[in-house]
Design brief:
heterodimer; A: alpha+beta; D-Maltodextrin-Binding Protein, domain 2; 22 helices; 18% strand; B: 327 residues; mainly alpha; MetI-like fold; 2 domains; 0% strand; flat
Chain lengths: 720, 327
């Protein structure tokens, strides 16, 4: 018995060991087939599964990383230019804009807002752009679509998209863009921007009503070609127009978002067939676009694979012309045609530790910095500038830092009787708190230094943001020795006393003033953060009560104006000051108007300036208006300005050096890797410790032998 | 037997209904249909009309339990609770609030979960039963004391520690296997080895301790002494006599784990990037996807009930003294 057991274990362990080494011929710990290693494949990760890949409904960052590579809206952000600039993507040139008066007559620049009754954007496509191969576009010899009249059985037989053996393609035409704009109004697609765009696009609200009505009568798929839209019309094969009801210069930025990417009617016809949805066959999961990549594998629970679109027309690497980035000119490339990488594999990594370890092993090409790995990766020099640690540098890992187009702030509810309103008492109270809450400390403790203290609502990189002495918030900072210094606590205490709360004492009660902070709680870190806020307020003698709640209740309280002070944030939709300043525009107040002005700030002076600013072109006149607006809100302090988060990312030596572009979502086509260097370094970093295998195997066998021997001995002992 | 079976099934229906009712009530205490709509549509630029449309399209505009706008039976059937629940009992799980077909998703995800859970269960049994027998036999020896100490330590340590330590040691330090990941076909073995080993190690302590207790009780019985007195080999005594008589408590522990086999392990699957069912429910809760939450809770309770049914059947099979439905 003992001999048989030992022999079996020996055979199994030998087989496992030999099998592992023989089958791979490379590192044993590679998390993907070794055949992929030497190929032009970018390995990246995603943390949460995308829910929508249909451009009409996709509005999340975690979806944009996919949709950005697959779909092509008319415009895109220049990859290298800073400040960010829009350039044509599928268009021949930037859209032509016509202003019309109420009689339809063209208005010449400069136009006044009152005179404009409609705005027409004329967009001309470049010919020769083609869709990625897809069954929806497959035709038979007679020119009929092969898969547009399938029976349920045929769909069941195919089961997946790969089950449709034939694929086809066709040229992108203007009608596809118009079709997509109509899709915004489709009652089954629930586009998040429908309500917003109804305010601007002529006839979109009427179309939405018509389609809703149509849907109430029938559950059959709606063929949008039968429903005209006044505000989106085809002029010729390659030209279409979008008609807006009013001047909205920021509309151009929307034309760089997937909402305005083309979708062929064939896709809706194909996926609309009964039985498709039961197999998760829809545009949400199997997109169809003209971009440089197409989705070859969609397993949102494991991995998403983008492969080069064989029909992609190619694109040249952009040049900077006269402009330069911080890193200098664009990297030289032997392969200027885009895309430069064949495949992109996104692996689902829900936990930071395995993701971080795999990056260190070289199995992911880029990585954010896990909180646990921050000290291992980053150190700060004497000037407080982040740099890579020697350990990382020895591996050739590079660090890139970029300030996000976003702001994280603490808002005061301006409808609140204590902290709200534009009266002197409340304003001084808010100003005192703005000085006392030490944002620099917040960034240092809770963000590992990854943030820039905000001087107002506009982040760096946005037109209107000022740097240097003219850019500081004089309410909170003073300029000294060439840098912004937070005003001392004594000044805050004086302001508080002027507000009628000497040493933080509320004269109404004779006790410390009690304020309430509403926030969502998301774990142990937030508990420490709340404690920190309490400490900051306590420096002024104010008792801060934190009311942490779940996300839904928190949203509800802010919406209903029941939160007194609250934590909030905003990520830019587009790099225009309007997209930040509208957060303080009175008619966008959250409680009364259901807008994005969560603080319910209302200042008629600010609102009037906002009206002027939003239609002005970038230039000295607009800068002057923005300066005035920023001064007003700094004085009123409806927010504790918080900070602009910074993105730290690490990349391996085999990736090309690129300056991060935080607005563009279609940047993967520009990237390049050196797979041979990756293979070499992966092999060097991941040599398996073989001796341990033998040690463990022998140890297990010896242990088993001892146990069996002891059992036999004991058996003899207990036998009568 | 048939009467017993029918009676048990009769018990199950109200249990399932109760669980479903409780899930419904708890979910909507925390989330409102408006919250769900905003969660799915995104937080920005969403108009009240869009929220209403979303609710109408997903049936969340209906009253919860009683619809006063309807007459007769429709007052009950045209409600949010009934419309969702009735489908569950016909195993038509429908689509998630995000639009995906739930049944299809479950069919895709169940296999990776089983690919880990089944080997873990089998290996645990193959290791824990002989070890339990061995330590029962070697009671009081250094081996028994040492193993008991190890088992208690293993029980005291969080399974998360086993996972992180296992990944660090085997995948990062020794570089013997991938830290995490998954593949189709035979290549999956490479990725399953570490999570299976870690899971087995993490669960072995409790199982060996339990087995030791069960076997110790059995080995002290008279029939064991009689078997030894007959001159049977120790292996025969243990495997032929002790093991079958200790089967009932062992079966209980095995059957109770059955729902977990199918529903997966959240932590293990998250850390090892296994595309199983483990995170399906948690993700749905985070995304406020009631259709998935309701389905998964229903399936979980159904599997648990089936597990209990199987336990009773297994008892009758393992112990001839037990008669189902008898006195």
């Amino acid at each position: 018995m003992l001999r048989r057991v030992l022999a079996l274990c020996g055979v199994l362990l030998s087989a496992l060991f030999c099998g592992s080494s023989g089958a791979n011929g490379g590192p044993w710990n590679a998390p993907y087939p070794l055949s992929d290693r030497g190929r032009s494949v970018l390995f990246s990760t995603f943390q949460t599964s995308p829910r929508h890949l249909d451009p009409v409904s996709s509005y999340s960052e975690n979806e944009a990383i996919f949709t950005g590579q697959i779909y092509e809206p008319p415009l895109q952000y220049h990859y290298l230019k800073r400040p960010y600039a829009l350039v044509p993507l599928t268009l021949q040139a930037m859209p032509e804009v016509d202003y019309r008066d109420a009689t339809g007559r063209r208005l010449e620049e400069p136009v006044t807002e009152q005179a404009v009754a409609s705005v027409i954007y004329r967009l001309r496509l470049r010919p020769g752009i083609r869709y990625a191969p897809h069954p929806a576009l497959a035709r038979d010899r007679a020119g009929r679509y092969r898969y547009h009249a399938l029976t349920k059985n045929e769909i069941a037989e195919a089961d997946t998209l790969a089950g449709f053996s034939a694929t086809g393609t066709r040229e992108l035409v203007a009608a596809d863009y118009v079709h997509q704009i109509k899709r915004l109004a489709h009652p089954d697609l629930h586009s998040p921007i429908l309500g917003f765009m109804e305010r601007y696009i002529e006839g979109l609200d009427a179309l939405a009503r018509t389609l809703r009505e149509e849907r109430s009568h029938s559950t059959d798929p709606l063929d949008l070609r039968a429903f005209p839209l006044v505000g989106a019309r085809v002029i010729d094969r390659y030209t279409f127009e979008i008609v807006l009801k009013e001047r909205y210069p920021q509309f151009l930025y929307w034309l760089a978002m997937p909402f305005f990417a083309p979708v062929p009617w064939e896709a809706d016809s194909f996926y609309g067939q009964p039985g498709m949805a039961d197999r998760n066959l829809n545009l949400d999961w199997h997109p169809l676009g003209t971009g440089p990549y197409m989705l070859a594998e969609n397993n949102p629970n494991r991995r998403m694979v983008l492969v080069r679109n064989p029909e992609f027309r190619g694109e040249n690497y952009p040049s900077l012309e006269a402009q330069t980035t911080k890193r200098g000119p664009a990297p030289p490339s032997a392969e200027p045609r885009l895309p430069r990488i064949d495949e992109i594999h996104f692996m689902l990594e829900k936990e930071e530790i395995p993701e971080w370890n795999k990056f260190l092993q070289g199995y992911y090409d880029t990585s954010p910095i896990a909180p646990d790995g921050f000290e291992q990766a980053i150190r700060f020099d004497a000037q407080g500038k982040p740099e890579i640690t020697p350990e990382m540098r020895a591996k050739g890992i590079r660090l890139s830092v970029a300030t996000r187009m976003s702001i994280s702030y603490v808002g005061f509810n301006m409808l609140d009787p204590v902290v709200g309103g534009r009266g002197r008492r409340a304003r001084l109270l808010r100003q005192a708190l703005a000085i006392a809450v030490d944002t620099e400390e917040l960034i240092s403790i809770f963000g590992n230094g990854r943030g820039v203290p905000a001087q107002g609502p506009l982040p760096p990189g946005i037109f209107g943001h000022r740097t240097g002495e003219s850019g500081i918030n004089p309410v909170v900072y003073r300029w000294q020795d060439g840098r912004a210094l937070r005003r001392p606590l004594e000044e805050a205490q004086m302001l508080l006393a002027e507000a009628g709360y000497p040493d933080g004492i509320d004269p109404a009660t004779g006790k410390s003033l009690v304020l309430h902070l509403d926030a969502t709680s998301s774990g142990p870190d937030t508990k420490a953060l709340f404690g920190w806020y309490r400490k900051q307020f306590a420096r002024l003698g104010i008792d801060l009560v934190v009311r942490s709640t779940d996300y839904n209740r928190f949203q509800e309280k802010v919406q209903q104006g029941e939160a007194q002070i609250f934590t909030w944030g905003w990520n830019a939709d587009y790099p225009d000051p309007e997209n930040f300043l509208f957060l303080l525009y009175g008619p966008h107040g959250k409680t009364r108007h259901l807008g994005e002005n969560a603080a319910n700030y209302a200042n008629p002076g600010f609102d009037a300036l906002f009206h002027r600013m939003r239609t002005l072109p970038n230039g000295p006149a607009r800068q002057k208006v923005i300066d005035e607006m920023v001064s007003l809100v700094r004085l009123d302090s409806p927010w504790l300005w918080g900070f602009h988060p910074q993105a730290y990312a690490l990349e391996h030596a085999w990736m090309d050096a690129a300056e991060p572009n935080l607005m563009a979502r279609n940047t993967l086509k520009y990237r390049q890797i050196d797979p041979s260097l990756r293979v070499k370094l992966q092999a060097r970093w991941n040599e398996p410790v073989r001796a341990v295998v033998w040690g463990v195997a022998i140890g297990v066998l010896v242990l088993m032998a001892v146990v069996v021997w002891r059992v036999r001995q004991r058996a003899r002992a207990v036998a009568p | 037997m048939t009467a017993w079976f029918v009676r048990r099934l009769g018990y199950f229906l109200p249990i399932l209904l109760g669980v479903n009712l409780l899930t419904f009530a708890l979910f909507f205490v925390v989330n409102s249909p408006d919250d769900m709509a905003r969660r799915h549509l995104g937080e920005r630029h969403v108009s009240p009309a869009a929220v209403s449309d979303w609710k109408r399209a997903h049936g969340y505009d209906r009253p919860a339990f009683l619809n006063p706008a309807q007459n007769g039976l429709a007052m009950v059937t045209d409600t949010l609770f009934f419309a969702g629940s009735s489908r569950l009992f016909s195993f038509n799980f429908g689509r998630s609030d995000g639009g995906r077909h739930i049944g299809w998703d479950i069919r895709q995800r169940i296999w990776p979960s089983l690919a880990i859970a089944l080997p873990v269960l089998i290996l645990e049994l193959l290791i824990a039963v002989p070890l339990g027998l061995a330590v029962a036999l070697l009671r009081g020896s250094a081996f028994d004391r040492g193993l008991t100490l190890l088992c208690v330590a293993a029980m005291a340590i969080s399974s998360l520690f086993f996972i992180i330590a296992g990944q660090f040691l085997f995948a990062r330090m020794l570089r013997l296997m991938p830290i995490s990941g998954f593949a189709e076909g035979w290549d999956a073995l490479r990725f399953l080895l570490l999570p299976v080993v870690v899971q087995v190690l993490a669960g072995l302590g409790a199982r060996v301790r339990w087995n030791r207790t069960v076997f110790l009780e059995e080995t002290s019985r008279e029939y064991v002494r009689t078997a030894r007195a007959k001159g049977l080999s120790e292996a025969r005594v243990l495997f032929r006599h002790v093991l079958p008589n200790a089967a009932l408590p062992l079966i209980t522990t095995i059957v109770v784990t059955l729902p977990g086999l199918f529903l997966g392990s959240l932590i293990t699957e998250s850390f090892f990037a296994i595309p199983g069912l483990g995170s399906y429910t948690i993700d749905a809760i985070q995304n406020q996807d009631f259709a998935i939450v309701r389905t998964m809770v229903f399936l979980g309770s159904l599997l648990y009930i089936l597990g209990l049914l199987l336990t009773d059947l297994a008892y009758a099979w393992a112990d001839p003294r037990i008669r189902l439905g008898g006195n």
